[in-house]
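Format notes (please read before filing issues)

Several people have asked whether sequences and structure tokens are stored in separate files. They are not. Every record keeps both together, in the order shown below: the sequence lines, then the token lines. Line labels are part of the format and must not be stripped during preprocessing.
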Amino acid sequence: MNLLGILENGLFALAQVLRLPVIVLLWVSVAAAVFMAGGCAMEFLARRRERAGFDLNTWLDQGTLLGADDARQASLPAALAALLRDVKAERGKAGKVKFGDGGLEHLVLEREERARRTLNGSRLLVKVGPSLGLLGTLIPMGTALAALTAGNLEVMAGQMVVAFTTTIVGLSAGTVAFVVQVVRHAWVNETVREQRFLAERVAGELARE
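Then the structure lines:
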């Protein structure tokens, strides 16, 4: 057997070795897609509940940010209330100077990074899901072609079923992740925009002190 034949057979064997991990990862992708969809639905209900009748401009007209009491602060959406709590806590520790030296900006950027980090999982699955589906398609097709050469149509048909099934599963997981990504990206942008607005108001209040 020549060198080229050895290398080709080695690649075929390597592809077959990858078959089990690919199928396992496809199942993981399905579980992740279901988990993300459920989490997105729960977040939708939570946002709908906490934002029912809430208007940020109306809330700001009720008084200063730094002087907001616990009851007024509790009426904020969770992300904004958490930012305001952090601002008050850091202000109590270091005073006005820390924010003047970039502490407020750092706090807001840290919150923004934390919010955007929640998109990493769905962004990854959008790429990985279809890729795993493609791998799960091509690997059994190699076996199916080998079976066709040997005249074993039953094995070939079984491998083709596996090939097309993995494609469907991978694309479905990627599609669910993409929908979750789009919806949650809009929510994150809204939260980041409101947090920056609150930070500007806090900076203005600190400057007037």
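For reference, the curators noted about this record: The first helix runs from residue 3 to 17. The helical segments are 3-17, 19-50, 56-60, 70-74, 78-94, 96-117, 120-149, 153-208.
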